[in-house]
Design goal:
By secondary structure, the chain is α/β, with parallel strands linked by helices. The chain has 8 helices and 11 strands. GO terms for molecular function: phosphorelay response regulator activity; transcription cis-regulatory region binding.
């Protein structure tokens, strides 16, 4: 990136917040830290970070509530949730939080930097890619990193946008879950096929709310998914 990306770290444990901030700053990011959930929304009204690292357990407004509110008001801000419970991740994936990734404590600062860079890289690639299929039921605004149905912003997360974009580039082509995972997570992490299904479910729900008469993402039993704008 040509300029330092602005990050917000929301973490109520001062040592962890300071460690994350120091490591991210040393890798070229501009970092602000907040320790109380009630401080987040007022701060975001005055600033526009590229990404928020958001702890779930916070004093005041909790991370789950904040994630929903951030995604509703500022859909272009990437969100990485931080949780102390590994077993919580599957539950989080099933919620309408709109997060782009998850990190489990304890973590290494190096892992945090790698996850942040990966999420920002995916969002930047999506914004810079050429726009496709302008007459489709859903139109992609690559510069604004938005998917529009009848001019209505669907409010997709980075992963949802990337999934839709990949399928829209090849209408009718069937993508396996493994192929979709390769596009979602280019850092070769190991994720379950349920993760793809969870993101597809959320993506479908958002499209259905805007286009209830159409089913443009189809399941192909035992194989995967495809984008089918017609018929």
């Amino acid at each position: 990136m040509s300029h330092a990306a602005s990050l917000l770290v929301v973490e109520d444990e001062p040592k962890i917040a300071r460690l994350m901030a120091d490591y991210l700053t040393s890798h070229g990011f501009e970092v602000t830290t907040l320790g109380h959930g009630d401080e987040v929304m007022p701060w975001l009204e005055q600033h526009s970070p590229a990404l928020v690292l958001l702890d779930i357990m916070l004093p005041g407004k909790d991370g789950l509530t904040l994630s929903r509110e951030i995604r509703q008001l500022w859909p272009s801000i990437a969100i990485i949730m931080v949780t102390a419970k590994v077993e919580e991740v599957d539950r989080l994936l099933g919620l309408e939080l709109g997060a782009d990734d998850y990190i489990c404590k304890p973590f290494s600062p190096r892992e945090v930097v790698a996850r942040v860079k990966a999420v920002l890289r995916r969002s930047q690639a999506a914004a810079e890619a050429p726009s496709e299929v302008q007459n489709a039921p859903v139109v992609l605004n690559e510069d604004g990193w938005q998917a529009l149905a009848h001019g209505q912003d669907l409010g997709l997360t980075a992963v949802e946008f990337q999934l839709l974009r990949v399928m829209m580039q090849a209408p009718g082509r069937i993508f396996s879950r493994e192929q979709l995972m390769d596009h979602m997570y280019r850092d070769n992490r190991i994720v379950s096929e349920r993760t793809v299904d969870s993101h597809i479910k959320k993506l479908r729900k958002k499209i259905h709310e805007a286009l209830p008469e159409l089913e443009i993402i189809r399941s192909v039993y035992g194989v995967g998914y495809k984008y089918q704008p017609e018929g």
